[in-house]
From TrEMBL:
<feature type="region of interest" description="Disordered">
    <location>
        <begin position="1"/>
        <end position="23"/>
    </location>
</feature>
<dbReference type="InterPro" id="IPR036390">
    <property type="entry name" value="WH_DNA-bd_sf"/>
</dbReference>
<dbReference type="Pfam" id="PF12840">
    <property type="entry name" value="HTH_20"/>
</dbReference>
<protein>
    <submittedName>
        <fullName>MarR family protein</fullName>
    </submittedName>
</protein>
<dbReference type="InterPro" id="IPR036388">
    <property type="entry name" value="WH-like_DNA-bd_sf"/>
</dbReference>
<dbReference type="InterPro" id="IPR011991">
    <property type="entry name" value="ArsR-like_HTH"/>
</dbReference>
Length: 236
């Protein structure tokens, strides 16, 4: 057995998508007219039964294949046979970026002002949904609100860093976003994606009942970052 084959077949965390051999086993079961046992599958693939059994057990663990006992045609205990679970193959490729581009193109085709307004409102709704509100017994101070907002932005992949202000208990003047989790889409459709990000921050701060809000977002303010501007707000 080749070294790379040993690594693949001896590593229990190799997924179906990452294992060509495992995909072959799954495809064999899908095209077989009846459930197959280990020996039958191994014979058809020209592999050792232990190798096939390993992949079959992994497919069962992944929920892609069912194992059941089938009565033997002769004396002896029932044999185990395998059949694919019904449903679409979840080991195939995904292209969510294409889906996002398709959806964004609908906004981009609209009036720019209308598209921006809709993107911001969508962002606000998601900001309110994604952030956890502060406990009722904790007043929404600038510090607590900023901690919650920065945690949300960090979880989403923005690599945020507050800057300026904050020395006398006031809010920071801005948040530098050093990474964009939607960079390619933002480069193509900054007029929609960036207002979405601004609305996200506004919605989160509103949900936190924070004494500050995000007023503007400068896309690519510097080569390595975007900048969100903050201001204190008396609207609570």
């Amino acid at each position: 057995m080749k070294k790379n084959q040993q690594v693949e077949e001896g590593c229990p965390d190799v997924s179906t998508r990452e294992s060509p051999r495992r995909r072959e086993v799954l495809e064999l079961l899908r095209t077989a007219p009846a459930p197959l046992g280990v020996a039958e599958a191994a014979e058809r693939m020209g592999l050792h039964p232990n190798s096939v059994r390993f992949h079959l057990d992994a497919l069962v663990a992944d929920g892609l294949v069912e194992r059941r006992a089938e009565a033997s045609s002769g004396p002896g205990r029932p044999r185990a046979v395998y059949t694919p679970r019904p449903g679409m193959d979840r080991g195939g490729l995904r292209d969510y970026r294409l889906l996002a581009r398709m959806l964004l193109s609908r906004w981009a085709a609209a009036d720019p002002a209308e598209a921006r307004a809709e993107a911001m409102e969508t962002g606000r709704a998601w900001g309110r949904f994604l952030v956890d509100p502060l406990p009722p017994d904790e007043p929404p101070t600038v510090e607590r609100s900023m901690t919650a907002l920065l945690a949300l932005l960090d979880d989403l992949g923005f690599a945020p860093r507050p800057e300026g202000g904050g020395g006398s208990g006031g809010p920071p003047e801005r948040i530098r976003l050093r990474h964009c989790p939607f960079l390619e889409l933002a480069e193509e459709r900054s007029g929609v994606v960036c207002p979405l990000h601004l609305g996200l921050m506004q919605g989160a701060l509103a949900r936190l009942d924070a004494p500050l809000t995000a007023t503007a977002l400068e896309p690519f303010a510097e080569p390595d970052s975007c900048v969100a501007h903050l201001t204190g707000s008396s609207a609570r």
